[in-house]
# Entry
Amino acid sequence: MGYPILQKRVLGPGSRMMVIKAPFVARAAKPGQFIMLRVTDKGERIPLTIAKADKKEGTVTIIFQEVGKTTMHLGTLEPGDELHDFVGPLGKPTEIDNWGTVAALGGGFGTAVLLPLIRGLKDKGNKVITIVGFRTKDLIFLTDELSEVSDELIITTDDGSYGMKGFVTHALQKLIDEGREINHVFAVGPVPMMKATADLTKKHNIKATVSLNPIMVDGTGMCGACRVEVGNETKFACVDGPEFDAHLVNFDLLMKRLRMYVKQEKISLERFKAERKEAA
# Structure
């Protein structure tokens, strides 16, 4: 049995949103968890965060960027097509408490992770200041949805083409400089952005949580590919995370491991493009 694609939406250049019929996943999903999918029975498994789970409709919303062979292949599918595998929910749900004022930081496609997180934070009575950053105005997405669930939304762009010029950490520093009380920070996005957030919050003694994105193969803790170093201990992001105390993560090791298969990933993508061109 496959998993039908019910809806597809273009969010921006190379970015897609899909709604998948997966009632068992939707029924059990909680903020912070993810799924592992395969487009075909011969495809690789990739992890994607659950952006939204509709228990009543039995659907799961995923958001992805076409950067590698599998996400490129996924992007070619349309409503009515089916995914071969769609396994989840995986990972530990976000541990949410009523901290007071929480800053939720999203960089690029980390923004998709923020939607269920913010809803969970609001349900616990927190005030949520959402800060999202993009390279340029053309890459901005989900701001309407984020605005609906946040108490305050701040948008930054690297080039200043929209909102505040700079990075999400610059916006967070500005809030701190203004004397705004921030009780907890969540950060999801590129590793350098999460590392910068960890350094900033540690400096100001603010608790911070990051959602890590290491290479994953099975998503169940059996392969060990997603191992990360947290507090000088080895953890598996798929079963021990994906969220960890930002101040304990070895980000340098994480970045090194993420670069391990760049050459192979490039070869796979080029082969896929060539096959598509030949078949056209």
Observations:
- The chain has a mean pLDDT of 90.
